[in-house]
Design a protein that fits this description.
about 10% strand; two-stranded antiparallel sheet; 3-stranded parallel beta sheet
């Protein structure tokens, strides 16, 4: 029997006033309760109860031990209740460590909704791509891409990652060539004329000495 169980049984005997009444509450017979209290006394090296055929009474050591044990039992019960409440409705501070891209895409967009759902919970979010020691950093939870860095961690798979290759579009070597030059369209030839370049004849001026070839 561990010390806390011994404290509980001893306190039950004191509060009910006897081994039989305490045994009925815990599902043991009177002799079994008496033996377990006796083992507690042997472990402490002192007598806690004065026994008679009809009554039991506390020794001075038993009175001191009962006062201290009652406070310890109450503290343990309160601690157990507080942890049980956490499993039903989270409260306190959650220290979370996530990679940068994952945190920006999947954590921060939903953080406000999460905190509105669990109003008694406060989140301390650390976003980093460095593998940190969760125990040294005091983190409660971490999300990692790949396998765990410590075999002692409790790990739960969230999703499967399908990696793929990505590359930017090819870049041209050197400057782009200028757009092709398009000459202006030719003027259309007058109706009935060829589309070839038209020959315009100038009239010969009157008299000699004007433009033209001299005849000799």
């Amino acid at each position: 029997m561990d010390t806390l169980s011994g404290m509980r049984l001893f306190a039950r005997v004191v509060e009910t006033g006897g081994f039989s009444a305490a045994g009925r509450q815990v599902g043991l017979n009177a002799s079994s309760v008496s033996r377990q209290v006796g083992r507690l006394e042997d472990a402490l090296g002192t007598r806690l109860l004065n026994r008679s055929t009809r009554h039991i009474g506390l020794t001075e050591a038993g009175r001191i031990y009962y006062e201290r044990a009652s406070r310890i039992i109450a503290d343990v019960d309160e601690a157990n209740a507080a942890v049980s409440e956490l499993s039903q409705a989270p409260r306190g501070t959650l220290r979370l460590n996530v990679p940068v891209v994952f945190g920006r895409r999947y954590i921060t967009p939903y953080m406000r909704e999460f905190l509105e759902t669990y109003r008694d919970l406060r989140v301390e979010l650390t976003v980093t791509d460095h593998y940190v020691d969760l125990i040294e950093e005091g983190a409660d939870l971490a999300i990692r891409i790949g396998g765990p860095s410590q075999s002692s961690y409790i790990v739960r798979k969230l999703a499967t990652l399908h990696p793929g290759g990505c590359a930017p579009p090819p870049r041209r070597r050197g400057p782009r060539p200028p757009p092709e030059f398009s000459p202006p369209p030719r003027p259309a030839a007058p109706p009935g004329r060829s589309r070839r370049a038209q020959l315009h004849r100038l009239p010969r001026p009157a008299g000699r000495g004007g433009l033209g070839a001299d005849r000799r």
